[in-house]
Amino acid sequence: MAGPATTLPTAEDVMSLLRGVIDPELGSDIVELGMAQGASVDREGVVIVTVALTTAGCPLRAQLQKDVRARVGSAPGVTGVEIRWTEMTQEQRSSAMAKARWNARDRAPETEIPATTRVVTIASGKGGVGKSSVTVNLAVALAAQGFTVGVMDADIGGHSVPRMLGLGGRLAGVEGEKKIVPHEKQVGPGLLKVVSMRFLVDDEDSAVMWRGFMLNRAVQHFVEDVRWGAMDYLLIDMPPGTGDVQMGLARMLPRAEMLIVTTPAVGAQKVAARAADMARKSYLRVAGVIENMSSFTCDHGQTYALFGAGGGEALAADIGSPLLGSVPLEPSVGSGGDAGVPVALGQGLAAEAFRAIARRIVEEAIPPVDMAGCSARLLHDVEAALGPK
Ligand SMILES: Nc1ncnc2c1ncn2[C@@H]1O[C@H](COP(=O)(O)OP(=O)(O)OP(=O)(O)O)[C@@H](O)[C@H]1O
Ligand SMILES: [Mg+2]
User: Whose CA is nearest to atom 9 of ligand 1?
Assistant: First the structure.
């Protein structure tokens, strides 16, 4: 990262990063639950985190370990992550379970996004680099693998997501409740759940009126008041830049991870790095970089680097996140968007690139939450053990 790349995080910074690690079963982050009990950072950038499990044989240990390593390990300056596992005392356990029970039963949830959903924001330093195209194409590519994928159009002013997915019409509300039901679209064995300001207003002009001060409120609405239901991934198409909406989302969803879209132009990574800088300040993890509008291959098979080359790699190296792939410049990306049929559902180099990036997301960059074998701490067991409230 530009500038203070060598500045090490403090122990407090590490605890803030750990707020992004959710215990998927108890439904809160591990700091709030009292599981993250302390952190230290040595001069070489090695972080030691103490995590107390509710039971030593906790089946989610592997999942928590992966998440803690990913979150803390990708912070600038961190060279290693060591986890010291301990077990909660009876008292700590009761308090964690009480918190979980309170979350599950008594508290109006802050968000209806399930604890097991991976939240991914698609961001960039500047506009027009292809955030919306990347969002919808990754969404359909993930759904084609069988996942249930939410798509939140947080670009209230631009809202290109509905057009690119061929969706229209107003969103329905839940009878008697102030809840919004997302539009659904089946993609092969998977499912998309889509919300956009475009579905709440009747015409593009009134959507534009939501610009400015209402913008953040609208996004908050999408975080708090949408009946998302089960969902493996939630992709959020961000407005361009690094302003209030981005910071607001980071505050509302500290567990979000960011994918940064950049163009291959030499120097483009400097602008894109602003998005990474924002991620760092908000303690979000940058899970990867996607280069868009890379080389163009003509019908004769000749390849041209129209917008330069190396921007994605340079950014990835600058910020210490992996380059997940490069999407070539291809007219079908634009025409697929115009037709409401994302190119990733079809053939060609761009389609293959999107599908390959989606596979890398699932396999390494942001694997879905693994709940397999997890039954030891189901809430009702916990409640039974705790007795009546
Ligand atoms: N790989 C590509 N090949 C060809 N055209 C592309 C590609 N990626 C995006 N485009 C086109 O570039 C334009 C901008 O893309 P898109 O709307 O996805 O960018 P954005 O970053 O979301 O823009 P904004 O900042 O305005 O929200 C669109 O017309 C889109 O069809
Ligand atoms: Mg856009």
Answer: 130
